Amino acid sequence: MIQNSFRKNTSTFMGMLALLACFAGSPNLSHAEASPKVKITTSMGDIVVEVYPDKAPKTVANFLQYVKDKHYDGTIFHRVIANFMIQGGGYDAQYKERAMRPPVPHEGRQAMAAGLKNQTGFLAMARTNDPQSATAQFFINTVDNAFLDPTPIPEGDPVKRFEHRGQIYENVPRENLLNALQLFGYTVFGKVTSGMDVVNKIRATPTGMGGPFRTDVPKTPVLILSITMVQ
User: Fold this and answer.
1) For residue 188, what are the β-bridge partners?
2) Smallest Cα–Cα separation from 108: which of 84, 86, 128, 134?
3) What is the rounded distance in angstroms from the CA atom of residue 31 to the CA atom of residue 67?
4) Which ranges of the chain would DSSP assign to H, the alpha helix?
5) Nearest to 51 by CA among 150, 143, 188
6) Is the pTM above the cut of 0.70?
7) Contacts of 160 (CB under 8 A, 6+ apart)
8) Residue 147 carries which DSSP code?
9) Which of 33, 79, 83, 212 has its CA 20 to 30 A from that of 14?
10) How many other CB atoms are there within 10 angstroms of residue 134's CB atom?
11) Half-sphere exposure of 5 (CA within 13 A, CB side)
12) Full pLDDT tens readout for the chain, 231 residues
């Protein structure tokens, strides 16, 4: 670690300059440590995803634990909507749901404040209507889906005036808005760094009925053979 205090002799000062130069020559070191990568090996090709524990720490830790536990190996992309997203990680090829751990806390607003949005190629957690229900399933946005982003809440308590999708809120306690189900959005925690061509192949696959699902299931199963850490 570089200390805050420096000795006044020249040799120590030059040594510190050399240490700083060493760090300057490795600009990607901290970024690489902070942003692990995983490889999603599918039956249609490989997708590499970078995840951001500095922006959504609990979400990323949860996802990477599933990766280490090999939870995703042998699952499928069970929901594919070309102009929306591809979703997987919860069901095997026989449409049997995998056992999952308890939900991870919603970190959508925190992640969005750090710059992560539901844009093309970005990875987010799938969930039910309950914002605190995300567990193992994830999706990759195939287009920009701003309507999935969390809604920032204006300052003040109560919030004097706030408009969302045509509805006007006036003098509402801040806590009420922070906990309003329709304002949570979805937590983004990573992005595709290579393999968008594979994502686009998956999004273009014909879909229909499959297992318990009436629509949006690939007619030819798209398997997630494995998800592994990239060294």
Assistant:
1) 124
2) 134
3) 21
4) 10-24, 29-34, 57-68, 108-113, 174-178, 196-203
5) 188
6) yes
7) 154, 170, 171
8) G
9) 33
10) 26
11) 1
12) 333 433 334 343 334 333 333 333 333 434 445 799 999 999 999 999 999 999 999 999 999 999 999 999 999 999 999 999 999 999 999 999 999 999 999 999 999 999 999 999 999 999 999 999 999 999 999 999 999 999 999 999 999 998 888 889 899 999 999 999 999 999 999 999 999 999 999 999 999 999 999 999 999 999 999 999 996
In the chain the first and final C-alpha atoms are separated, in Å, by: 25
User: Where are the domains positioned within the chain?
Assistant: 35-150+185-229
Q: What are phi and psi of 128, to 5 degrees?
A: -85, -165
Pairwise CA distance, residues 72 & 57, whole Å:
20
Residues constituting the chain: 231
CA atoms within 13 Å, Cβ hemisphere of 147: 4
Query: In this structure, what token pair is assigned to residue 11?
Result: 């040799």
CB 134 within 8 A of CB 106: yes
Take residue 90 and report the two structure tokens written for it: 């919860």
CA distances, 150 to each of 15, 44, 184, 185 (Å): 47, 32, 5, 4
Which among 190, 197, 194, 105 has a CA at the least distance from the CA of 140?
A: 190
φ, ψ for residue 192, nearest 5 deg: -75, 125
